[in-house]
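Fold it.
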Amino acid sequence: MCAESCKMATTLVLTPDISHDKTSRFQLVSWFNHLLKTNFKDVREMGSGACHCQMLDWVIRGSVDMTKVKFDAKGEDEYKHNFSLLQEAFSKRGITKTIPVTSLGNGDLKSNIKILKWFKAFYTANVKDCKEYDPVKARDGQDISPVVASEPSSGVELESDKEEKGTNISKKHPFTENWKNMFYWAEKSTLGEQYTYCSTCARNLKTFSKGHFELQRHMDTNTHNKRGRISKSLSLQSQPSEPLPCSDAAIRFIHRHCYNGSAKGEQVSIHFARRKLGLQYPKDITSVCQHTPYCVYIYGGETVGKDDTVSVVLVGFFDVEASRLCIRFLDALESENGAKDQTAVAVGQTLKKFGLPADNLVAVYLDGNGAASEQICSQLKELNPNMAVFGGLYSISDAACQAGVKQLSNQAQELTVDMYAHYSSSSKKNDNLKALFGSVTVDFPSSYINARCLNFCLLVTKMLEIWTDLVSYFSSCDKNDDKAKLISSRLQDPKVRATFMFLEQALKPLHNFQMHLQTPEGVARADLLLILEEASNLLSTYTSYFLRPQAAARFLKEHDAQILKNKIFHLSSPELSLGGKAIEDFLNESESVEALPPFTEEVLSFYIALTGCIAEKLPLNDGLLRSIAQLLNPQSRQKVTGTAVGELGTKLGLCSSPEEVKQLTSEFLQYQLAEEGEENHSAEVSLEKHWAGVLRDSKQTVFRRLVLTLLALPCPPLDAQHVFNQAFENGDAAQISDGEALAGSESEATSDSPTKKYSKEVNGRSIGVKQCEVRLTKISKLKKKCADTPGENGIFKEGASRGSFGWESSLRQKPQARAVFQAGASTRSKPVGLDKDSKNGLESQDEVPQESSPSSKSTPRSQRKHVYQDGKGFLAGELVWGKVKGFSWWPGLVTSWKTKSAPPGMRRVEWFGDGMFSEIYTEGLLAFNTFTKCFCKNSFACLPLYKEAIYHIIELAGERCGKSFAVAEGDKQKELKLMLDWASEGFLPSGPDGFLPPDSASHAETSDSTQSDYQPPAKRKYVFKNKANAVAITYSRELITEKLKEQGITIEDLCLSCGSSDIEVSHPLFEGALCQKCKGNFTETLYRYDEDGYQSYCTVCCAGLEVILCGIASCCRCFCKDCLEILVGPGTFDKLKDVDPWSCFMCKPSQCEGNLKLRPDWSVKVQDFFANNSAMEFEPHRVYPSIPADQRRPIRVLSLFDGIATGYLVLKDLGVKMERYVAAEICEDSIAVGMIKHKGKIEYVNDVRTITRKHLAEWGPFDLLIGGSPCNDLSMVNPLRKGLFEGTGRLFFEFYRILAMLKPKEGDDRPFFWLFENVVFMSAHDKADICRFLECNPILVDAVKVSPAHRARYFWGNLPGMNRPLATSLDDKVSLQDCLELGRTAKFDKVRTITTKSNSIRQGKHGPLPVSMNGREDYLWCTEMEQIFGFPKHYTDVNNMGRMQRQKVLGRSWSVPVIRHLFAPLKDYFECE
């Protein structure tokens, strides 16, 4: 076979010479991928030996047994196995080639390149023509797994073993029983005499080299002391105590639903229940509910034994301190012989037994329906008549659907039941029937009417989709099958089909409401505001279908069922909503006009029953529900009137007299005034956090009580298991918190004196809890770097945060000197060590790595040096997931950048498990709270290093959250299980905010960082225009003059913007410097322009409230009053006001005076300041100095793939004069938009491929080349993409060809700029090739920061300042609501990327539409899409284009605010209007 298929030497194998091989590693990867049909991205991924075995099998057929090759090799042992096969084959053939197995498996770059070059040459020398060999078939269709990193061998090497390699051990210290007398916790280790087992920490210690000295050092570590205190606290908890006040049924319920252990017995159940409920149960619940509104949750029919069931009672209230709804278990009730009336009475008695006041009971949620629920409601109504029943609200869709369907003809129901019976009895399953009933697992006839609304709507929709197929199927059935005949006749009955068509339309409002009750994946709670808003619209929607407007309004007010039944108030038959005109047309076309009157009567009965059920189930009337939603929503609080709030307070029993109503109204109006102007901030934080912030600062008022009442209302998900988990998680938190309080002070844990108590305030009231001693130590001499010293486990103790609020004072004022105190003897922190040589508190260096804590050697730790301020989030100390090549998502810790400043968008991450570092883009990081998305079960099961990494990061997250896993009692596997459960359930009770680093707390409530969200105060430009005044910035720059008088201080040593001496860089325009904070502000705002074309803020400081403008044409500079008064001299501003026109200091440097001196080379310096320094292997672009204003000329532009002339529109808006704008475009609709909207000023040249060098010489010279080639063959979304070198992907080379012809020759100083754009989601190979041809790296810009839609795109180019942060201008519409027409409501603040596909408008493949109008979902209108992209209204309304045509031209366009951001620096080079 070899001789037949390959022309090669069969008797002689040629050994290659690679000394002259200059193949790069990228070419090697490409060559091997093409040959072996693989998809490797780097030569280091090919070191498993599988590729090498296949190459040898290709050259010498049968030399390697391919069935023995492990193509999915994962570790060093499997790599060695493959290479042993290779070496054996070499030996048999007499090939003498040394293979560095270890280096290849560990990913050594040089070794992998060298061996692959050898195999390439080996193949070339011996194989002349081989077309018969199929590499995929030869390896039986398997993929070759890449080598991801060096992995641990099967034998575990101890951390201390690594330290002792290569050293001479003079004395050995095997374990001895005498050590037990010195250390009570020391025991013999199962690992051998070289180790000692610590029973307190459940760890093996390496004591062979240092003996008892190592034990002494371990005893002094924080981890050992902490675990010892926790053990003592647990032993204290296990001592006999008072019996639990809850019932025996409650103890049995807790044991059955929560206990996973093997121990049995009554005492075990009691002890476990006490731990789950918390040490303060039920005193903590009683104390809170006595002063805080609460809700009662009752779940009936919960099993506790084989035949025993109980009703579980829980309470919920809003915890202001925790900023969340807190649910706690109260008791479980067991009625005798299932007597429902006894259960109802027992619920009331339970509330009294636990001391919960009925006055504070605001709502009850009952799981299920029936007589028992009604009796419980009646019983609780006697305690508090104003209580609201919320069980019906969340079952309203199912109940209303059931009530309405019962009123329709039985034929439709019987048809469905008969079809299911036929499907169940038929041996051969029809595909259409299987699609309908395949998921039904219960007795269908009994479940049909009681089905969930969602399931029923889905069934109706599916039936209508396949109705014709069903008719064909049943018509073709056996003629003797009477049931099939009956089904066929009913399917052909027009009235039956019309009934289903009606149901599909009529049930849509209920279906939409039910969809809002579903909790999206990864979201803790459903959107209560949206639920209440939609619920308030249900009645008005359905009454409008069949009632006259006046009657509908009356029913909404009175809820009188007689109004629904009175025919006088009904709409006439033509006006009655039958589900659309299609149904009426269908009946007419089917010649079934006689069926229309009875069908109309059934529809009317349907509406009456359904609407009456909705009115009965709503806990409050629709107006009050709408008021609740608007009041709780910070964005719509201005819509709520004082009258509505007063009515709400009366209905909920908070106000019993006109005086109290007046007081509530007054307090609400005060809240509205106090919160005015905070809408933007409120939008950035969650609903709970917003109100927690408001309530923390408020006194005990009626309005406060009203808000706490509304926040305590039950909200989905409300399934029993989820609520039970939340309730017992809260109990765990309380128990552990108290346990750690005991462990917080060593003296307290060992003291025999009774424990002291102190009062803790919850929701403004006191609760008795145990005292924790805190000792304060004054740090007298705190050096600068001490503020940046990392605390235990890498938790950073950074300086005071500078959030978006109070920024002015933190930036402009130097903080006063203050004494610093450090809390001591804490369980999760330690004193700042001032002594560098101090060893106290260090972890043991000789602990077994598998058992190490996050503070051991394998855990990330670093010392903070510089703060990331590029606005992309992921600050130092944050826990993250990172995408490392070849691995699944790996856990890590963001550390500070090792040099002075980090490149924008880059983070230094230390990986848990191996302690290695990576420098990675933020696009490759995810927050640790995405645990369920990123956690890989397969890696956890087979990679010990991954399992260790998961253990370390969750342990660190637990320490930050105050979460203890001490209940595992040292069992590592059990502790890991508890950790994974905690992480998978959302890190309750604190949530992801709990494990943020201490210094990042202030950043947690903003979007990305303070830098990205900071908006300088709106300014007022002198004479020409005014803007709304903002809070003035408080400067300390007045001290600049005084500082300059000090010896050795020059202006270059001070920040021109704030006067700080802690400088970062030189000011690019004037002599002086900028500090780190001001540098970020300067970078972000220097090229920000207003609608009038002038700079938004001062040229010197990029701030200022009052500015004076330059009067020279084409100059857009302005200077603020503070800079003129402080840097030039007092009175300068008033003097320059009278100069008209005034030439600024940039246009006329000779007038610079005082300390404001223009740099002679400022035009070069400013470009160096914004240089595209992202290059990793490319030289920076040429920097063009700015052109003086009087020498600037209009710009000449060549736009390839122009689209709808976004470039022209932006340049015109910026005020840049255009001498010529030549556009290459082939889409007729896009050309029509450009021609009509820009009045024929654009010159169109059709296909870009027809442009020649002669054309460019005739049209040019050009100053700007822009374009973005089609992305459909580059985007990874397209499964049929052809890549960069085929299909439309090749059009990129047209841009490259023309760019090469347009670039100025050497010696030509004429500024020439270019910009190329394409999609982000392209393959790494295509991106690398584009970078290689354009000789630069791209920047990533997502339009979501300056528009309501996500639109991430790569931009390559040499525009000045391309990599500066993207910031919104004052006229950008960044919220979807800002772009909508009147009467339309945005359901989302931001929408996904809008493409040429119509379904891209939906928020997900089958997700909802983004707009609500008249209670129904709706698509975005064309004018709204135009504004989302930044275009003027009706910009694409030309050429009689339809909606889809307009969406297509918009979907291919650029985002106007992004292009404006990139083009803004061009105003320094070309003439402006």
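The longest strand covers residues 309-319.
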